[in-house]
Amino acid sequence: AAVTLATGKYSATRLISTLRMHGGYIGPIYVITDHPEEVRKHGALPLELRDHLGPAFQSDVARQRWEDSKIVKVKWYKTQLFHMLPNDIQTVLFLDADVEINAPMTSFQNAIADYKEHLAATKCTAYFFAERFYTPDNHNSGTGVLFREASAELLQEWGKEILTGKHIRDQVALDTTLKRTGLKVCDLPARMNYYSTDLMTQVTNILLGGRVQKHATFIHETARKNLRDLDSSVDH
């Protein structure tokens, strides 16, 4: 199944339409959301926030940190995917709502099938795109392949890390989780992803005659890094 997260002012409409039209994806699309009618209108299946329990906190301070968070708060639900989805769904392609599908997904789906077959040998708990070399992060959590069994410990620990309130982005919480636990995340093929608002990526694409964007499966629309993003944690 494909899963995304769209709450408040954010919409998954473009992602849903490009998954079907450009990607040729025929599987179920689930949207974690607080506006389910819009999701249904565009042919996807809503996972309503109000139908699922929020996190349990060890202290009132931790709860307040989470409540005060504007972005990371809702991203916690990304770590709860398999608790929200039907039990028969074993593999998830998670996509941020600002991702568009640029090309048929056949080769990507074949890669996922291969990943599943070799999970025991690779010891990978999940697959994400590696971050750009000039950023402080290791993985971009906006696109990932997750497995009900193999990813269970990673998602649990990642959720705990988000709830500490120490990070301004769930992506940083993911990197911290990997360092703390020693769990292994493997890389999705870099050629399949294009950061359309990133200056260095744009220049590279121009120098290569547009081939980088043309051959990418995923177009990440707003994945730019600014000075605020480089400050990965909040002070407490």
TrEMBL record:
Q: Which domain of life is it from?
A: Eukaryota
Spell out the SUPFAM superfamilies in the cross-references. Answer: Nucleotide-diphospho-sugar transferases
What InterPro entries has UniProt attached to this entry? Nucleotide-diphossugar_trans
Name the record gives this protein? Hexosyltransferase
